[in-house]
Amino acid sequence: MATAACIRANDWFCPAYLSQDRTEVLAAVRSHLELTAYALGLALLVAVPLALAVRRSRSGRLLALGIGGIVYTIPSLALFVLLGPVFGFTSSLPVVVALAAYDVQVLLRQLLVGLDGVPPDVVEAAVGTGYGRVALLARVELPLALPALLAGLRLAAVSTIALVTVGAVVGHGGIGALLFAGFTTDFKAQQLTSLVLVVVLALAVDLVLQLALRVLTPWRRAGGRAA
Questions:
Q1: Over pLDDT 70: what percentage of the chain?
Q2: Cys staple from 136: which of 105, 131, 186, 194, with CB 3.0 to 4.6 Å?
Q3: Taking Cα atoms as reference points, which of 192, 216, 151, 172 lies closest to residue 27?
Q4: pLDDT band at 220 (very low <50, low <70, confident <90, very high)
Q5: Rounded distance between C-alpha atoms, residue 181 and residue 190, angstroms
Q6: How distant, in Å, are the alpha carbons of 81, 113, 143, 194 from that of 157?
Q7: What is the DSSP code (8-state) at residue 140?
Q8: What is this structure's pTM?
Q9: Segment 26-31 mean pLDDT
Q10: Cβ(35)–Cβ(162) under 8 Å?
Q11: Of 194, 83, 98, 217, nearest to 147 (Cα)?
Q12: Does residue 160 contact residue 101 with C-beta atoms inside 8 Å?
């Protein structure tokens, strides 16, 4: 078939590959996004309460960031393998937990920066108008820290999308499984398609988070127009 000529020739650019293996490619993309979402969600569930717990304690802050920094230096493949016996290699949990551990460090640092950057006069004004501790946090401090948190989330999301591919070594890598299979069989179209998909996913997720920042912080746009 003419449409499969590029496959027989093992060309780098081969639309026929996508037509022939569309189901497999879409399944890999879906798996990649799910692993990324699970890791980021778990990281947020840990980082936000942790930041709130240590924000006013210098020693607690140093301890949390220090432990996170140590974890961050461990290569992803080594961490996947270390967590494998704990959660089982048949489960995607070693990959999700490892990626979440990396993301916690990024999100924790950014959220602390955001909370530290809330102007004291704004806090004083809110307290003066009767805001309690919970209302102050929910309606003043966290919204003002949101840009810093989303900046960290963008960085964490892009790095997680890239690192998910390494999970293919332990059987849970999303698009990484296609990439490793392509290298193993020297299937050039599969290699190129996998690489492009990872880049496109990273760019798309980053764009979505940028748009989310604009929607969730309308006062920043208003401030920019006023300036």
A1: 95
A2: 131
A3: 172
A4: low
A5: 8
A6: 22, 18, 20, 18
A7: I
A8: 0.87
A9: 92
A10: no
A11: 217
A12: no
The residue to which tokens 């960085």 are assigned: 155
CB 140 within 8 A of CB 126: yes
Six-digit token string for 205: 């997720």
Structural contact between residues 102 and 72, judged by C-beta atoms closer than 8 angstroms? yes
Amino acid at position 63, single letter: L
Residue 51's identity, in one-letter code, is A
Residues 6+ apart with CB under 8 A from 154: 206, 209, 210
In which element (H, E) is residue 221 found? helix 218-226
Q: Give the fold, CATH level 3, of 23-216.
A: MetI-like fold (1.10.3720)
Place of tokens 């930041």: 51
Q: Residue type for 204, please?
A: A
Whether the predicted pLDDT of 208 surpasses 60: yes
Q: How far apart are CA 190 and CA 205, in angstroms?
A: 22
Go through the chain and tell me how many residues it has.
Answer: 227
37: CB partners within 8 A, 6+ apart? none
CA–CA separation, 138 and 182 (whole Å): 48
Question: What six digits make up the tokens of 117?
Answer: 């950057």
Q: What angle do CA 99, 155, 91 make, to 5 degrees?
A: 15
CB 146 within 8 A of CB 216: yes
Are 197 and 209 contacting, i.e. CB atoms less than 8 angstroms apart? no
What's the confidence (pLDDT) of residue 2? 47
- Whether the per-residue pLDDT at 156 is higher than 60: the answer is yes
CA 226 → CA 135, 220, 223, distances in Å? 28, 10, 5
